Amino acid sequence: MIDPVEQGSIERVIHVEAPPHVVYEVLSRPEHLRRWWPDDQRFEPVVGARGELMWRNTVIAGSGTVALAVVDADPPRRICYRSSSPEYGGRPPLLVAFALVPERGGTRVHLTQTAFLTDGAPSAA
Prior knowledge:
Order of helices and strands: EHHEEEEEE
Radius of gyration: 15 Å
Number of strands: 7
Structural class: mainly beta
Helix content: 10-25%
């Protein structure tokens, strides 16, 4: 089995039928994130903010928590998070970046998720 964390990065580009400021809010505000990403979270969407993402697993009656740091925020153009967890088994932290560009009455969303293997950057933990 190939470990996806060792692969480097994943990139996706989609078009969303909403203006960039609305998309940015959905990608950066905890009250919106819980509708599509973690079950709960605690952080402010400003550069340098640290917090947590929490998931519940109803199948095994467990939960998980991931440390989060906001490493870039430029409303409504981009938001970038770094996350790490002891549950990753010593794997490097992940960087999740959303770049937003207005286009055709909506927004082009460019998602990049990257595992940092040796960059020396500080983790969210």
